[in-house]
């Protein structure tokens, strides 16, 4: 008489057989030890971030004076090493403000990520004004500080897009136009 194996039990038996074969359980122990694929690689532990410091610094002009020196000194970071590296990486962007996010690790080493310039700085540069209006469009006695075109708004939005929480150009343009309104900068077609 044939044994009564259901399809499920048969599938489980086949699965167990395949798994032991794939895992190398049916291979001789000496062959398993000699296999280079089985050698465990040493794993490096990720460094633990102790502090994150955010600064807005003029490109190519980082120095140990405040606000950079006290912020980094309190975290135990080598201030001169940061200044030299930051100045070298921002040499081509002279004249703009480049925000930086510095990750300080437990062993006092650091890495930093450069962000795009602030939207207000890009708008002031495009409108050729030294500063925005003291009374923006929302106030009764609103003053217009300057104006920019939609093409300039689109250029600024393209620059700011990596740092914004959107990936749509139109949404980024709306963000830039909102900043323009708060600064008293008129957007013309």
From TrEMBL:
Q: Which GO terms describe its molecular function?
A: large ribosomal subunit rRNA binding; structural constituent of ribosome
Q: Where is the Large ribosomal subunit protein uL11 N-terminal domain?
A: 53-110
Write out the GO cellular component annotations: cytosolic large ribosomal subunit
Record's superkingdom? Eukaryota
The reply to whether Ribosomal protein figures as a keyword in the UniProt entry is yes
Q: Does the keyword Glycoprotein apply?
A: no
User: Where would you find the membrane-spanning parts of this chain?
Assistant: none
Sorted alphabetically, the Gene Ontology BP terms of this entry are: translation
Q: What sequence ranges are listed for the domain Large ribosomal subunit protein uL11 C-terminal?
A: 115-187
Q: Which residues form the signal peptide?
A: 1-24
Q: Name one Pfam family in it.
A: Ribosomal_L11
Annotated keywords: Ribonucleoprotein, Ribosomal protein, RNA-binding, rRNA-binding, Signal
Cross-referenced NCBIfam families: L11_bact
Classification via HAMAP family: Ribosomal_uL11 (MF_00736)
The name this protein carries in UniProt is 50S ribosomal protein L11, chloroplastic
The organism is: Emiliania huxleyi (strain CCMP1516)
């Amino acid at each position: 008489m044939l044994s009564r194996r259901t399809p499920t039990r048969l599938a489980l038996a086949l699965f167990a057989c395949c798994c032991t074969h794939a895992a190398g359980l049916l291979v001789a122990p000496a062959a398993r030890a000699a296999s280079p694929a089985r050698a465990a690689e040493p794993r490096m532990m990720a460094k633990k971030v102790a502090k994150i410091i955010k600064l807005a610094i003029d490109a190519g002009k980082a120095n140990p004076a405040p606000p950079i020196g006290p912020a980094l000194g309190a975290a135990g970071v080598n201030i001169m090493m940061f200044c030299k590296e930051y100045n070298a990486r921002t040499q081509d962007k002279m004249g703009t403000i480049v925000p930086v996010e510095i990750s300080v690790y437990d062993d006092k080493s650091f890495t930093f990520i450069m962000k795009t310039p602030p939207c207000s700085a890009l708008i002031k540069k495009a409108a050729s004004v030294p500063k925005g209006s003291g009374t923006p469009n929302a106030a009764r006695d609103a003053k217009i500080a300057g104006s920019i075109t939609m093409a300039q708004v689109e250029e600024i939005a393209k620059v700011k897009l990596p740092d914004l929480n959107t990936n749509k150009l139109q949404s980024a343009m709306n963000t830039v136009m909102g900043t323009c309104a708060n600064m008293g900068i008129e957007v013309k077609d």
